[in-house]
Amino acid sequence: MDNVYGINLIPDNDAERIAALERYQIFNSHKEKAFDSICELACELFSCPISHISFLNADTEFVKAEVGLNGLQFVNRGVGFCSVAILQPDLLLVEDTYKHELFVNHPYVTDKLRIRFYAGAPIITPDGYIIGTLCLIDTEPRLFTEKEQKLLKKLANVAMEQTELRRNNIALLQQRDEFIAIASHEMRTPVTALKAAIQVLHAHQDEGPIELNKIMIEQANRSVNKLTYLVTDLFDASRLAARNYTLKKLPFDLGNLITTCCDFITVSGKHELDIEGDLSVQVVGDEKKIEQVLVNLVENAVKYAPYSKVISIQVQQLPDAVRVNVTDSGPGIEPDQLPHIFKRYFRSENGAPQSGLGLGLYICAEIVKQHGGEIGVKSELGNGSTFWFTLPLSV
Ligand code: ADP
Known about the structure:
- The chain contains nine helices and 13 strands.
- The protein has helices spanning 14-23, 33-46, 82-85, 107-110, 146-203, 210-241, 254-261, 287-304, 360-370, and strands at 50-56, 60-67, 74-76, 92-94, 117-124, 130-138, 250-253, 272-277, 282-285, 310-317, 321-328, 375-379, 385-392.
- The strands form three sheets. It has a six-stranded antiparallel sheet with strand order 3-2-1-6-5-4. It has a five-stranded mixed sheet with strand order 8-10-11-13-12.
- The N and C termini lie far apart (68 Å).
- The structure holds adenosine-5'-diphosphate.
- Adenosine-5'-diphosphate binds at residues 300-301, 304-305, 328, 330, 333, 341, 346-348, 356-362, 385.
- Adenosine-5'-diphosphate is lined by residues 300-301, 304-305, 328, 330, 333, 341, 346-348, 356-362, 385.
């Protein structure tokens, strides 16, 4: 790096600073209107011919947006003014380059650009790293009032907010792409099985070994059920997220629902259902939706804790609510995954890959919240999981 300043331009935390910059995936990105607009606004506001937003990596200043620099994109770190500006968390103000020892002999001052005035406000991440600058440049020396300095710093904060928003957008787009990949993968499996079953049935429609036809019809049935679950999850999740849902809240017998809705798990003989607690409790809510929550939690226990022989449902009366616990003695959940478990699209990558869109618990949480209740999980690796939810006794 050719350093025209003769001072150290590398702050002690440069490696961390560059790592912070990389989080934003903004270095070397395309031009974007929002950043151009900030530079245009700065020029208008301060009646200044040149403004730019730059981000600085290990050896290069990348000009993300500019007015008056004729499309300049990259500047060597040893030359750019930004490299000096990032050395301090405050504004770097050079009201007259001819009178500033660092800049008086700078090639941009003595040669073609003839910069006389420079003000660079640092762009600082929420965790305190200076990743770039918002700069004003003039070919005349000028005085820059305290008020103007404050304003420029505020605009640099706007540039940081825009950088954050941009990152969130990128993350959302990545999440959407991942989700589409998972959803299409999940749907392809049952569609392929369905297609195969129909082909066999078609080939044997007249003569066919009856036994084979029966197996194929079962396979087709299973595949259609699987597809129905997936499509219903997608539909429910989008309606719940948009709050485009009306709950039909009526008083109902929670104990009765619990004793009837989850029997299906005992059919295979692999699991037993143990129901405990006060089953006489009445609640007000949308019975079909609460059934969906219960079935989902119990199905998850079967799916993610397949060797848990006993799955228990416990009903607990609290002073003004009822709490339902669904407990398995399966593999449990990693502590760092617990905070994310109810988020939309969250699927754990642990252990054997399980089918699912990562929507089940999100749907449960939305239903419970819309009933004014709470939902949570208590789990320890190797020691099973208890998923619980509460419903207010009077809604
Ligand atoms: P899906 O709809 O794909 O089954 P969920 O939202 O129901 O997803 O669950 C999200 C993640 O939570 C799953 O990928 C799984 O890793 C974890 N999980 C849910 N229930 C249990 C359980 N009883 N034991 C262990 N992990 C579980």
